[in-house]
């Protein structure tokens, strides 16, 4: 309906006189009045259109918008709920519900609506930010942190999301999440940022304080307040490290020495102390692993990493421990670090691939399994045999995952699988049939996204046409 909606009004009114009961004419007239902000005239027309054609989603969406604009939240909510009953991931309905609940200060229901919208449209910043606000207003810090992080993944400089993240992390004592955003937070609130770091540097979380100070020093090397905070913290940590070594308090010494290494990586005077602490905790870690003490193994490994972040044995000990204790998601990052530190270690790579696969990251697992096979140099080792078996099953698992994602309203996951198969099929005949099946899945995803008025519709349609013009 390009141009001035009023231009079409005389024709529509004539059509209404001739076809007063035609739902299509009623809808068209109602939409015209809506666009002219004549909500009182639009409401009865759209109501009749929806009553005559319950599955006309466009008419229902415009009726819902009319109710929202005239402030009839009760009817607006009912219409949105009816839409969601037919299309559980309808973006217009979820967004409208979120705004209604915001208007009512009903933060519990607002959070639920915005959360569903954020999951349905992961590329948008509005929904996760609104969810973060709603959770923060309920003092649900963990959820607020999660959705602030989602917002920042889309808009890294979003000031409100940064503030919510910092506040939520402080409430949860999750200071390890802050070094990545401290520079942006400092640029917004320098006094608050330095006050937080000073509190952490005094014992609350020394490693996090060191990481944040290092980030600020790199970003603002000439800032006097930053430099003074660094000097004060470094002097305090050096004194505490010496005292702890004299008292054989190895854990406290490791924390302070690790913090000093983060701030002053070029300081050679720390080398001897760091090596001694590292050897001590490596021995402790291995002893704990031998007797099956999972907590002690991880604690000792974390102490090793505090003084030597590149210690592959420690990364592997943490990752392997989490993997065998049914936490594959938590195992991925440490096992990746171990594999990156020692890329020729097939055992590290195999466990990393297992963690990826078991945590649902099937596509990233494939090249890692292939690395395991390459390292065998053509020999049939136990590691390479397992990698070959898994690779033989993964393609069909991928397609099943894509169909499951589509059935649950996650078309972008189906698209990711299709894109992978498109690349793989030309060099792997076994993937050709899967590629054809994935086209059917992708076409269904296009149709589903279109019906749900999803922002992903265009992307999915372009990808489908690129594969099967």
The CA-CA distance between the termini, in Å, is 28 Å
Q: Give the strand content.
A: under 5%
**What is the ordering of alpha helices and beta strands?**
HHHHHHHHHHHHHHHHHHHHHHHHH
Q: Could you describe the largest sheet, including whether it forms a barrel?
A: none
Mean of pLDDT: 83
Q: Please give the number of β-strands.
A: 0
Give me the number of helical elements. Answer: 25
Shape: flat
* Helix and strand composition category: mainly alpha
Uncertain stretches of 5 or more adjacent residues: none
Compute the CA-based radius of gyration.
Answer: 29 Å
> Helix fraction?
over 70%
At a glance:
The chain is mainly alpha-helical and 469 residues long. It has helices spanning 5-18, 23-35, 39-52, 57-70, 73-86, 91-104, 107-120, 126-137, 141-154, 159-172, 182-188, 190-204, 206-219, 224-246, 250-263, 271-290, 294-307, 312-324, 328-341, 346-358, 362-375, 382-407, 411-424, 432-451, 457-467.
Structure write-up:
By secondary structure, the chain is mostly helical. Helices cover 79% and strands 0% of the residues. It contains 25 helices and no strands. α12 packs parallel to α14, α17 runs antiparallel to α18 and α23 packs antiparallel against α24. The protein is flat, with a radius of gyration of 29 Å. It starts with a helix and ends with a helix. 43% of the residues are buried.
């Amino acid at each position: 309906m390009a141009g001035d909606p009023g231009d079409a009004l005389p024709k529509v009114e004539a059509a209404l006189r001739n076809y007063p009961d035609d739902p299509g004419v009623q809808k068209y007239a109602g939409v015209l009045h809506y666009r002219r902000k004549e909500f009182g005239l639009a409401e009865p027309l759209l109501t009749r259109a929806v009553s005559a054609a319950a599955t006309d989603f466009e008419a229902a969406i415009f009726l819902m918008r009319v109710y929202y604009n005239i402030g009839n939240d009760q009817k607006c909510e009912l219409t949105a709920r009816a839409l969601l009953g037919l299309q559980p991931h309808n973006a217009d309905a979820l967004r409208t519900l979120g705004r209604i609940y915001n208007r009512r200060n009903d933060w519990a229901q607002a959070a639920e609506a915005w959360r569903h919208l954020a999951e349905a449209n992961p590329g948008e910043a509005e929904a996760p930010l609104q969810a973060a606000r709603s959770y923060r207003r309920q003092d649900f810090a963990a959820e607020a942190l999660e959705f602030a992080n989602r917002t920042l993944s889309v808009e890294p400089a979003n000031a409100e999301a940064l503030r919510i993240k910092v506040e939520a992390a402080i409430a949860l004592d999750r200071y390890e999440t802050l070094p990545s955003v401290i520079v942006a937070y400092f640029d917004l609130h320098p006094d608050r940022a330095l006050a937080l770091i000073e509190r952490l540097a005094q014992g609350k979380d020394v490693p996090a304080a060191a990481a944040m100070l290092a980030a600020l020093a790199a970003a603002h090397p000439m800032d006097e307040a930053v430099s003074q905070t660094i000097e004060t913290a470094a002097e305090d940590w050096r004194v505490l490290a010496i005292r702890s070594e004299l008292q054989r308090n190895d854990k406290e010494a490791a924390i302070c020495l690790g913090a000093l290494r983060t701030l002053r990586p070029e300081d050679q005077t720390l080398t001897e102390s760091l090596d001694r602490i590292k050897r001590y905790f490596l021995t402790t870690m291995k002893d704990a692993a031998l007797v099956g003490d999972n907590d002690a193994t991880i604690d000792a490994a974390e102490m090793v990493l505090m003084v030597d972040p590149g210690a592959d044995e420690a990364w592997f000990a943490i990752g392997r421990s989490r993997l065998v204790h049914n936490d594959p998601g938590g195992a991925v990052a440490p096992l990746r670090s171990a594999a990156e530190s020692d890329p020729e270690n097939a055992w590290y790579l195999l466990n990393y691939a297992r963690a990826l696969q078991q945590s649902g990251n099937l596509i990233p697992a494939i090249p890692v399994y292939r690395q395991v096979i390459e390292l065998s140099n053509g020999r049939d080792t136990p590691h390479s045999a397992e990698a070959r078996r898994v690779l033989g099953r993964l393609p069909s698992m991928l397609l099943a995952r894509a169909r499951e994602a589509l059935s649950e309203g996650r078309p972008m996951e189906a698209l990711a699988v299709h894109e992978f198969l498109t690349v793989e099929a030309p060099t792997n005949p076994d993937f050709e049939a899967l590629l054809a099946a994935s086209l059917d899945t992708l076409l269904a995803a296009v149709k589903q996204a279109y019906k749900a008025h999803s922002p992903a519709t265009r992307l999915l349609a372009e990808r489908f046409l690129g594969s099967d013009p």
